Amino acid sequence: MHTLRLCLFLLLLSGCHTQSSTPNTTLFTANVMTIDYRIVIGEALSEEQKELVSSIIQNTFSEIDRIYNKWNPDSELSRLNHLPAGKVVALSPELEHFLLLTEKFVYISGFRFDPTIEPIQQLWKSKLALNTIPTDEEIQALLPAIGWQHIHIRSGTFQKDHDATQIDLGAIAKGYAVDLLTERLQANGFPNVFVEWGGEIRTLGSHPEGRPWNVYISRLQDSNPANALAYLSLKNQAIATSGDYLQNWTLNSTTYFHIFNSTTGHPLTRHPSRVSSASVIAPTCMAADVFATSAMTFPNIHSAKQWASDMEELIPDLKFYLFTDSSF
Fold first, then answer.
1. Chain Cα centroid distance, residue 208
2. What is the pTM (predicted TM-score) of this model?
């Protein structure tokens, strides 16, 4: 699997919540919402400081679950998804801020990133689980509900204009959680931090050795750092990866993966000429998430590279690493 892997001398631990200290770092690891996280503080911490970091971690993940998690039927997002068209409800300040950021990324990406794809996703995944695909009629029935134009956020309120419109924040909520953790740790006096949750990474400051935080992009079936596709040094930067190997289904010799074309209502399919994996360095992990996902949507690597080059000119702090199957 082509993944981001740490080039750090860390003891990889598991469990409910684990702390491990070296003379120069303190490591926190656990599994939240079925996804492992690793947080490195670039100094040895006192017991009081460890309790503070643990509290920040716990409170942040609780907030993500309570507000943004579509799998939590009681989350604020779930309640919005089940609203009827035309009903106006108040948003929490946290979700309003997040949705307005999301809206900016929808437009910057040229609508390649569209969180309203959720009804189409549900349809396809339910059908693929039964080894079949939706009919054209089923897809066409849902397409009128797809599109950010159905979402209206005004003065702290939310409204949608189609009953079936729903939002999936999966492409960015993980990166946003990494951003919140990083920024809250910095605000509480920790200037050198490495935060990773499910491969989404953001860094602050430097490693205690006085160098940047180092990661590498490994080959699909070869996690050996000596054979990496790229070695990257991060300082006050984030990186996220999207790939066609993360979730996929093969039916009748066609491999579908988890990113959808919101115009056609079809999932993207694996092809040798397409982007197989996209990694993006950006100032925030949420931004890296959006652009990595968007880069996967192009019909071929050449058009994806042209778009990536345009984005790098528009936003100088972006850096794209795009690979096809042949790269591995």
1. 27
2. 0.90
